[in-house]
Amino acid sequence: MDYSIKQGTPIRLYSNLTEIFPGDFSVDYANSTITISDTHAAPYPGSKNYIEFPIEPDMEWSAGKMWGVALPNGDGLSRTFKIKTRNVIKEGTKTHLIIDNTHFSPSDFTVDYVNKTLTIENKAPAPPFGAKIEFYYNKLDTIDTEPSDKFSIISFFRDPRIIQLEAESKMAPTVSEPVATPSVDEPQVTQPVIESKEDQAVDESAEIPLSIPSGENFPGTFTINSSGTSFTVRLKMKNIQPTYTSYVMVKNSEEQLVKRIQFDPETTFSYPLSNLNLSTGGYYFYIKMMDQSGNSAASVPQFIPINNNKAQVLVFIDGKLQQYEQPATSISGSMLVPFRAVFEALGAKVKWDGATKTVTATKGNTTIKLTVGSRDAYINGKLVRLNAAPRLINGKVMVPIRFVSEALGAKVKWNIAAQSVVIFLAPQQVLTTNESEQLMDEDEANTEPQLNPAILNNISNTITKSSDIVFVIDVTSSMTGTLDYVRQKVKGFVDLVPSGSQFAVVAFRDINLTADKDLEYFDFTADKSKLKGNLNTLRPSAGGDLKESGLEAIQLAVSKFSKSSNSKIIIFITDAPVHDKNTALGKARFSVDEINEQLQKNGVIFNAIVPASGLANKQMKKLVDSNQGTLYDIKDAKLNLAK
After folding, report:
1. Rounded CA gap, 135 and 120, in Å?
2. Contact between residue 402 and residue 390 where contact means Cβ atoms under 8 Å apart
3. What is the pTM of this model?
4. Of 150, 176, 161, 179, whose CA–CA distance to 94 is shortest?
5. In degrees rounded to 5, what are phi and psi of residue 467?
6. What is the model's pLDDT at position 618?
7. What angle do helix axes 615-626 and 592-601 make, rounded to 10 degrees?
8. CA-CA distance, 445 to 558, in Å (whole number)?
9. Could you identify which of 79, 224, 345, 451 might form a hypothetical disulfide with 447, taking C-beta atoms 3.0 to 4.6 angstroms apart as the criterion?
10. Residues 190, 589: Cα–Cα separation, whole Å
11. Alpha-carbon gap, residue 412 to 400, rounded angstroms
12. Mean pLDDT per 10-residue interval, the chain, length 643 residues
């Protein structure tokens, strides 16, 4: 960093939200290095590692949209302090002063922008001895700044005090008197109410970073039973962390994700293929595990042919189902296929000599010759005896597919359960990255009104007039299946509500995380395609704590309602409790009681899709019961979920 940390300063070290015990690392203050001892595992590739340490005078940092500077500690007498910042602050910039976590009014201090000093007015007390003094100003009001990452301190990014400063800066002309949004009643601060020990038991626990290898070393197996009717998954792990989510992923031949089946990783998991309702074609199956921060590991994808008409033999080349005018035919134990189609699919050039009834195929340095009616074939002039001779069937020259495929360097397998020939010219390469796994849309024209899931259908039945509806959705990694559900079924929901309705989206994660957007808002629209497009931009990730920033998201949703005659409806969806400032002061700006008051004063109908029991259910039940809504079980709002 640009400044040195004093010898002996206490330092806390974190790797992906998990603190490393102080005895497991040492600090070299002189050389600004940290060394993790051999008694602790090295941080795995891609992990986010950072430190926290106390603010000391003259430190400077990037804090979200603010710059922060630590002024000299108070001595009980001094009122003027030097602002040692690397930036040039513009005259008139809005500034903020915090002394021992207390915000001072702008009228209590003045800033000399030229000489970079701050003076506390006589009407305010001088900072007491040892008081920590922090000065903040907006990044946009600086010039000649150096790169922010040069002195960024991660632990400051989500400091609740800084979030409050940013919010006040946006409102403004006067920081001490923020202007409220006209259509929203601001909550009144209430005294914290300590919840029972039973509720507090559902507290945040440090997330265990995912440290499972992908590929051939993935600790799990995926197998299809001999009859080809079901698959079984076994994980070879002694300790499976509760923060991990396990899936079987299914991609089609175009490598589009078509199914995602969640399962319990602690037991052997078997599932019927028929339950997937896959159409005839080729599919890639693999196991995947994810942690709440979006880190993942996957097994090697396996190709599985699906044949819903076993009376017809299918041929797959590099995962693609082949279509032949003359179907494949078994003769003397050999599968015969039309010569030109199969040779060209394998990348060979073909010639047909009608006079001699000879087929010649050339690929690279390999030349193959076969003659109709003869079991003698030649590879680069060398005689090879065939099990079955090529023959004419319905005017098509048919050749043995195993021989020609292997002669051209391909791997051939016969899948008896699917009555299919599977050929790969090269090892299959299928992406298993999170970015490649957006679930493919179902055919809504055929499925929506017959299979519209009960929850959205039931909610739509309660809406009897034009409404402004906000989907408030937890988009942490564990919500992947539920987000799929909303994406795929929301168009059917929109079609069922009264005309004139509008739809908005608020997405939230954990307000205490540093790497992802906490809140994302998509404005009201009556266009269901635009609504679905907004949902498609959301990528589940992050979420190290069990609790999330749902109350902030609800407050944002309430603030976006206009004063139109439309009804106001929120559909809140999460699988986790929310931070409540009554029980976790500093992690949330609002309490459940304050949000409940907000909903009531603004006439918002509140529906919630949450777990059937636990703290999340209790928190949201209070909001639902007080605001004319209904509580739904989130297990009924997930696509391709298997237990």
Report:
1. 12
2. no
3. 0.59
4. 176
5. -140, 150
6. 95
7. 20
8. 33
9. 451
10. 12
11. 12
12. 78 78 87 88 78 83 80 92 87 86 85 92 88 86 52 46 59 38 42 41 55 89 92 84 85 91 88 91 94 84 93 93 90 88 92 93 94 94 92 92 92 92 90 82 45 74 94 88 85 90 91 60 92 86 72 93 92 92 78 95 96 93 96 82 49
Any idea how long the chain is? 643
Tokens matching residue 393: 């069937």
Which of 627, 641, 565 shows the shortest CA–CA distance to 593? Answer: 627
* CA 325 from centre of chain: 44
Specify the pLDDT at position 167: 58
- The helix/strand/coil state of 297 is strand
- Residue 42 CA to its chain's centroid (Å): 25
Nearest to 521 by CA among 507, 535, 533: 507
Say if residues 592 and 552 touch (Cβ distance below 8 Å): no
Tokens at residue 540, please?
A: 């589940």
- In three-state secondary structure terms, 81 is strand
In the structure encoding, which two tokens stand for residue 385, read together? 């005896």
Amino acid residing at 256: Q
> Could you tell me which residues come within 8 angstroms of residue 432 by beta carbon, excluding any fewer than 6 positions away?
214, 249, 286, 288, 296, 298, 301
Query: Contact 71/24 with Cβ under 8 angstroms?
Result: no
Distance set, CA 615 to CA 195, 199, 225, 291, 575 (Å): 11, 6, 41, 21, 10
CB atoms under 10 Å from CB of 3, counted, come to 12
**What residue type is 620 in one-letter code?**
M
Beta bridge partners of 327: none
Shortest CA distance to 286 belongs to which of 246, 254, 245, 240?
Answer: 246
